[in-house]
Structures
1.
Amino acid sequence: MKGRKTENALNEAEISNRSLEQFAGVAAHDLKSPLATISGYLSLLEDELGQALPGNEYIPIIEGAAERMRKLIDRLLGYARLGGKGIPFEEVDLNDVLKTTIQSLHSAIQETRTQIISDPLPTVHGDFELLSQLFQNIFSNSMKFRGDGPSEIRISSNKEPHEDFYVFRFKDQGIGFDPKHKENIFELYKTLHSGKRYSGSGIGLATCKKVVELHGGRIWAESKPGQGTSIFFTLPVKPK
């Protein structure tokens, strides 16, 4: 009887996850359509009237807001789709993931004068795209909260002989945060810093947590104000 209840609960959870993904897809489509209309008419007004348009200096502001909304919708959709079902895991060389991520973030890395230093990384069992998203979100978070001047991100990995998982550490030299917040920085929509410079959706680290958990690992952070942040996560050596 207990086993049947557990099976029913799992089936209900799976149905709920599928419903959430379907809803997210429909919602994303419905929200993107008016955004595309707004952006299209703004471009049309700018092309046809240009400087003659009253208040034309506000067009870039409106376009920027529409673009931020589009990115937020994409991030929410991506988060909702991380259900874990139907993702075929395979051997992934994390050195290749690192290389791909650095290429994807080339402009941001150059703009923020960020130096990325990494030990040789192992091969794990997982999904290349999801692990790339994990790396990219951690890098983006470090660059956003880098403080003044150039920044540096150091990557290391370790595995104890008796353990069946790797421990990874991404350490930056950013502004850090109060240790009392270390338990909730991976919550959806959670942001610790205010102001235009540090504005964000609060989805990036929540996505990191979900990606790591889908791979059978866990993620946590250590930090102090003004002393940078270290993001740690584990990934199993072999599939579970």
2.
Amino acid sequence: MTPDWGGQAALCLLLLILPISALIARRVPILRVLLSLASWAAIGAVALVAINQRERFDPYLQRIAAALKLDDQSVVGRETRIRMSGDGHFWARVRIDGVERRMLVDSGATVTALSAATAAAAGLDIKSGLFPLVINTANGQVEAQTATVRDVRLGDIAARDLGVVVSPAFGDTDVLGMNFLSKLKSWRVEGRTLILVPHHPNVLT
């Protein structure tokens, strides 16, 4: 879903009209009107940038962003849509056994990968084998352990008993891999939007 520039423009226009009307009503000189106009334009721009960049971390700003149609993740009909982030990646808001995390959607990752911190927060039962699992990542080979997430939720999509790998080597990054995407009816990228379509909303098996 591309940004609603019309809605943002309307908001900026409203922010500008209110102070201008007040100043004109008081017969303030045109120079002061222009200076005030520039100040309000700057304030409006900063507010929009703040909402765009911080709404994924603050639930209150998430509600504001959704109301202004600036949200980077939304459910439209049977589709969950994720807007491309400024870094060129798709980041999804996902619940891992009830714990909300911001996860990188990576079709190049065979399996979903969780940081040790996320696994601990979700209370996952880490399976410790005699020998650790060695997997290949963009940063080389790392040792990992396996676990199963009972419930994964993204938009109106829910996956049950999803296998994951866990390792401190992943740092703070959590990755949603192909073992999740392959459960969908389809997924595609249109422009700067990732579109996920489940076979049946709410449940993936």
3.
Amino acid sequence: MLSSYRAVIFDMDGLLFDTESIARWAWKQALKDHGYIMSDDLYMEIVGRDLTWREKLLKKIYGEDLPFESVTIQRIEIGDERELREGLPMKPGVLDLLSRLSDLGVMIGLATGTARIRAVRRLKNAGINQYFTTIVTSEDVAEGKPAPDIFLEVSRRLNIDPVQCVVFEDSFVGIEAAFQAGMCPIMVPDIEQPSIKIRGLAYRVLDSLEETRELLPELFGDPIKN
């Protein structure tokens, strides 16, 4: 069976790496140190969003006096310190999936809202940076997820039509962005389970990237060798 898919685009935080527990803690701690309290529900609203959107939402909730830049700098600093101290676990199935895609000749890109310097550092520290042909961050596009810009920019750099791209995402906004880009969205939930709407947009919802062993032949045609 011949497949129409030629590329896979990955999100990073919460999909490739178990980042969300540190990210949630860092946001809450930074806001607390500035005199604000963040609920779990509010944190869920900013997951996967870019900085501009986060600033608008948080200032709407806490007021225009919120020192967003100062909070952001602090939460990055304390988050990075904890990440370097404790390490950042890679999600189950990541290395196996990247290796299998590489063996199939599938092109691989990264689309992340994380700053480039931190994204590259994480990939290098995990020893998987060599699998990615291109890395696009929210710094490279006009609008972040759920706008499709970041995924469309990855496909442009890979020189592959959007309809030939499969996207793995863990967030609602990521699935929406991939769908709007005309790609094949696959959700691997991390801290938020898909709603009925998101399930309707996703081609498949997996419990783990380990489940892709059975999915790859369906997506890319040729059987996968063990």
4.
Amino acid sequence: MPITHRRVGLLVPPANPVAEPETTYLLNAFRTVHTARFPVMGGPLPTRLKAYNHMLPDIIGSFGGLSLDTVVVGCSGSRYLMRPEEDEASCQALSRRWGMPVATATFATRRILQRLRPRELVLVSPYQPWLTELARRFWRRAGWVVRVVPIQAAGRYAPYEVDPRDLVDQVEHARLAEDAVLLCTGTGMATLAALPPLAAGNDRVLLTSNICGAWWALHQTGDAASDDLPWALRRLASQGLTP
């Protein structure tokens, strides 16, 4: 793969199997993606998510002398412990500290939604119910009416194990509007293969945490020609959301 002069740093949880390959695919023709992972920690999930927020500066610092153009934090769950304005303030503070744009997946998603200005957001969530509720509150506080579509893997909440075919089946079972705005939250849920079936014959806006992070990275580091974008980003561009 040719090395481009634009470099994107990506931060992901230690066992996340999806954020890195999906983001690399979405940016591959335009940017080189460099990944750092949060450390493996014990304890319950809420404790680990809270720790991710506190250690963000150190994880960004782990890139050392590698010159980056921007950093995307590929973890949504940890940010749902915060309010939207706290998430934004944190990104701004990190950007000032490191002298480059830094965004969480949630902050990047807010930027897209602020351009779209939908009345209702359909939150497609593979999280456990308590975390889905925090996500719903986050987006409601950000200004949107939120409808939740819960997603399970083999009858349980396990984001990393959701099969794209099951994702399609469960979303379609919800009978969403033809022009609905969907947000598949969670950078660890595989979504790219599910999007074309969900888009067939309608004008839905299909957002995912990884797509929003990639969109934001492209927006920060220079426009890419719409014709050269991967399908998911090209569809957004056709809906007025060119990076």
